[in-house]
Amino acid sequence: MKIPIFLAALVILSACNPSDTRPGVWLSGQTADETPSDWSFTDAYKEVALEVVTPYFIPHSVTIWCAQMDGVLYVGAGAPEEKNWPGWVDDDPTVRLLIGETIFSGTLADVTDAKEIERLRGAYEKKYDLESMVQGVRYWRVAAPQSDA
């Protein structure tokens, strides 16, 4: 019996994590029972995967950098105006993060405070051994899912 091509494609895409610059869809991994209160363990991970809700009902996932300050996790998007996912986060801040082999649920909150952004830039520079963090990055703070808050 032949499997229709669209069904095979759906199966293949059903657990397609992003890789480098290639986006993915649903993240696959072991789901954590709760959102961590201390994200300092993320210092050991250079890249994480972020899954966002889209208007077309299929999640979109990307590989991004992250940094933590005082146990709080942050993610950022360079040149956010050139990407679709930051706008989708504006519409629905519900996300899932793949860190190592574990998927964590969360909600993103826009970081707008200049002092917090300056500290955060320093955290990224230290973690990624950068002379200076590029300008034009938009940052979000990761919080527990709204249903858990």
Give a description of the structure.
There is one protein chain. By secondary structure, this protein is an alpha+beta fold. The chain has three helices and eight strands, in the order H-E-E-E-E-E-H-E-E-H-E. It has helices spanning 5-13, 85-91, 114-127; strands spanning 30-31, 48-52, 60-64, 66-69, 72-78, 94-99, 102-110, 137-143. Strands 1, 2, 3, 4, 5, 6, 7 and 8 form an eight-stranded mixed β-sheet that branches. Strand 4 and strand 5 form a beta hairpin. The longest helix has 14 residues, at 114-127. It is globular. The model has no long low-confidence stretch (mean pLDDT 90).
Summarize the structure.
The protein has helices spanning 5-13, 85-91, 114-127, and strands spanning 30-31, 48-52, 60-64, 66-69, 72-78, 94-99, 102-110, 137-143. The protein is an alpha+beta fold.
Protein structure class: alpha+beta
Strand content: 25-35%
Number of domains: 1
Shape: globular
Integer-rounded radius of gyration:
16 Å
Number of helices: 3
Q: Find the CATH superfamily.
A: Electron Transport, Fmn-binding Protein, Chain A
- Helicity range: 10-25%
Pick out its properties.
8-stranded mixed β-sheet, Pnp Oxidase, Chain A, 149 residues, alpha+beta, globular, single chain
